[in-house]
Each structure stands twice: as structure tokens, then as C-alpha cells.
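Minutes, project huddle
Topic: does the predicted pose make sense with protoporphyrin IX containing FE bound?
PN asked that the exact inputs be recorded in the minutes so nobody has to dig through chat later. Recorded below.
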Amino acid sequence: MQKYKIWDGAVRFFHWSQVLLLGGLWYSAEQELYGIHMTLAYSLAALLLARLVWALVGSDNARFGHFVYSPAEVWHYWRQKPQSGVDGHNPLSGYMVLLLLLLVLLQFITGLMTTDDVFTEGPLVAAVDSSWVALASSFHRLNLDILLILIGLHVLAALWHQWRGDKVISQLVTGKSEQPLSQPLQFQKFYWFLLLVLLFGFGFYSWQGEQLWLLLQADLAG
Ligand code: HEM
Ligand code: HEM
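Predicted holo structure (C-alpha cells), as shared on screen:
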């Protein structure tokens, strides 16, 4: 059967790495392995920042302009029977995507100002007012529950679409659709995305690398 490319390597790589990294972030926090926690967090942030740049300059259906619709368009789409196919995120899932990206970004930013009140603190704790530290630390704990609820809904919606035959999960794994696209899409090369990730990763390493090595050694020493 003929297949049609619907997702580029960048969106797929970002998505599935993010799922693994968030799992690792949750587990490392539970185990109080903060060297690992912060290393995974900077890795996720490098991917996330690269994804945000990709949303401006990347492949057609990875861009905000392609999947952020006005509320009226979302309403119209929701009422349509049958709903028309879209070559990427549908108008409703576009908003969920925005929300998930924003909350993961806020989780990272607040992490930088979070303290466990004992030994470990983010690198901005000393630089900001203590009221900000208290707010950021509370948000860092609470936001995980909000994220878990939204991720639960997101996964249910994906399973529902997969089961109905839209095959959205398979598409995000293989990057291919069995349905012809409604318009031709331009895709950018994956190595540009990788370069962006490496640039952001290098920035974080230059800023926090030394501190991270010390914390990782402490994690390994148990
Ligand atoms: C940690 C959990 C997860 C988070 C934070 C998350 C977040 C996201 C984000 C931000 C996107 C947009 C991707 C992009 O444009 O770059 C997305 C898309 C998508 N995700 Fe997830 N995801 C998670 C888990 C999952 C799982 C477990 C599945 C499948 C069972 C899944 C299925 C999908 C699908 C099918 C899309 C494309 C949706 C569409 O067509 O609009 N996600 N997800
Ligand atoms: C998106 C990235 C991140 C995720 C998903 C995440 C997730 C978590 C989770 C689930 C907890 C446990 C909260 C609880 O005890 O209820 C936690 C705690 C913590 N995180 Fe993160 N985190 C992220 C980024 C960061 C960053 C960038 C830093 C600092 C550089 C950081 C530092 C901490 C600290 C110090 C704690 C302990 C707080 C406490 O004991 O109350 N996190 N994080």
C-alpha cells in the first residue's frame, strides 16, 4: 500500500524522547537523584527549545501557523460531521499541544528556582527573591498533577483516534499516513533540528556542566 509522509523526524524524535525523559524526571525526583533529575531536565529543555524554534522555521505542519486555529475554527471543526481530515494536529489537539508545551516549559523554568529545603536547589534559587522560590517550588510540585491529568486526556484522545481508524499513533511512530494528504507539505531536514538541540544542549552544559558532574557523582555514590 502506498504511504504518504505526514510527520518529519524532528516532531517524532521530540515527542518520543519527551515521553521517555518525563518518565525519567518523575522517577529520579521520586528517588531523590537530583543529579540525574537535572541532567534529564536540561536535555528535555534543549529538545523543547529546539521544538519551539522548529515551530517557527521547521517543517510546514510542525509550525504554529499550521496548527493554531481561532476558537471559531475549532468550533466549526468540532460541529462538522464527518470531521474533515487534517495533515497534522487537528484544530482541537493544536490547543492541547500548546498547553502541554507551555506546562512542560513552566515545569522546567520553575525547576530552576525550586529547592527541596535540604541540600538541593536549582541554579536560580540564590538569584531570586525567596517569595519567588516558594511560589516556584509549589508550582513545580503541583504542576506535575496538572500535567498528569492532561497527558491522560491526551493519550485517551490518541487511543480513541487510533481505534477509530485515523491511526494517529502509528503516524507519529512511522511518520507515514495511509491517506493521501489534502495539500503538499514541505519538510525540513532532521539534521537542522539536531543541530538546534545540540546548540541548546551546549549552552546548558557551559552554564551548569560543572555543577551537574558534582551532583551526578553524589547520585552514583548513593
Ligand atoms: C509524557 C507524555 C506525553 C506528552 C507530554 C505528550 C505531548 C505531546 C505533544 C507536545 C505533542 C505535539 C508534538 C509536536 O508537535 O511536536 C504530541 C502529539 C501527539 N501525541 Fe503525545 N505526549 C505524551 C504521550 C503520548 C503517548 C503515550 C501517546 C500515544 C499513546 C501520544 C500520542 C500522540 C499523538 C498521536 C500525537 C499527534 C496528535 C495530533 O495528531 O495532533 N502522546 N504529544
Ligand atoms: C521539565 C522538567 C522537569 C520535570 C518534569 C520535573 C519534575 C519534578 C518532580 C515530579 C518532582 C517531585 C515533586 C514532588 O516531590 O512532589 C521534582 C522535584 C524537584 N525538581 Fe524537578 N522537574 C523538572 C525540572 C527541574 C529542573 C530544571 C530543576 C533544577 C535545575 C529541578 C529541580 C528539582 C528539585 C530541587 C526538586 C525537589 C523539590 C522538593 O523536594 O520539593 N527540576 N521535579
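Observations noted during the meeting:
- The mean pLDDT is 95.
- Residues 4-221 form a domain with the Fumarate Reductase Cytochrome B subunit fold (CATH 1.20.950.20).
No decisions taken; revisit at the next huddle.
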